[in-house]
UniProtKB/TrEMBL annotation:
Top-rank taxon: Bacteria
InterPro entries: Citrate_utilization_prot_B, NarG-like_sf
Phylogenetic placement of the source organism: Bacteria, Pseudomonadati, Pseudomonadota, Alphaproteobacteria, Rhodobacterales
Statement: the UniProt record of this protein carries the keyword Acyltransferase: no
Keyword Nucleotide-binding: no
Gene: tcuB
Keywords: Membrane, Transmembrane, Transmembrane helix
Protein's name according to its UniProt entry: Tricarballylate utilization 4Fe-4S protein TcuB
Transmembrane segments: 103-126, 146-169, 221-243, 258-278, 290-312, 318-339
Amino acid sequence: MSLDLIIPAPSATDEARRQIEICNACRYCEGFCAVFPAMTRQKSFADGDLTQLANLCHNCRGCYYACQYTAPHEFALNIPAALAEVRVESWERLARPQALARLFQTHGVAMAGLLVVALAVFFWALGALRPVEGAGFYAHLAHNTLVAIFAPAFVLPLLLIALSVRDYWREVGGGRVRLAHLLRAFDSAARMKNLSGGHGEGCNFEKGDRFSDRRRVFHQLMMYGFLLCFASTSSATLMHYLLGLEAPYALISVPKLLGVPGGLMMAVGAVGLGWLKLRADRSLGAARVWGGEMAFVLLLGAVALTGLGLYVATGSALVGPLLAVHLSTVMVLFLLMPFSKMVHGFYRLAALVAEAGQPAPSSANE
């Protein structure tokens, strides 16, 4: 009588550890991105070390196409996918509540879509209680009503993210932060250095073994477009409360000069990133969360496009329904920040700060 032994599959962390140890012995890809110099500091890797390496990885995939140990070799290395799985697991594990994070990662499109529809109906119904006075958007929803709704929807998710990043810092053993570490990390993030590839020619995300800088450009359009829109909202808030200048604002005004270009940049970035995700090989990332990542891109695009549409429709009968849809997309983006890929910016910045505080990596010849 024979008994079949069932050997459980290795966890994502154990598989990443196996692959990283092989990479550390080879070191052919040492200059490709921040991951490979960082891994040369040690010969064995604790779980926290792998979490840090995974969040340093930007999934540019250059190492995969340069590697001589990918399948069908017996080592079957796939570092982009291995680190992507660890990275996503770290976001899920450190999020609060974890169940909601896991749900969004696997059912992101449906979850975001349902929330947008439900909140659009809510804002549309709320518009029936329109204020007696008000111009522009405030003719449909009072300013104080919007503040009462959106302030907690923005602040509470940020608090959850702050708690998650604190736990991340403890897990990876982040040390004391100095100004020089912050400056180096922000410089790397602003230039998106790790999306430029080992030779500065771009990465291999959507073109296999051919270099492309498109992903970096679309990421920069998205990031800087979002920052411009955030600056637009912040400037409008200051103008409202400090200067007594209430919306709507003219085209030649700080909020519009920041918000319109920012919205256009976000829209182009969202279309570009969505297009690249459709072209890219899913097996080189965390395939199980592809839907959640695509939902995040679509949500950012919806925020930008509805905001631009709202500006174009100013003074028409479309303002009411467009305002309800735009506010619902913004609200969903805020509410899902701790669980969607929006959180990756916070973790990657933390990873870059932690890396900036580490000693210089050892040479491959040591």
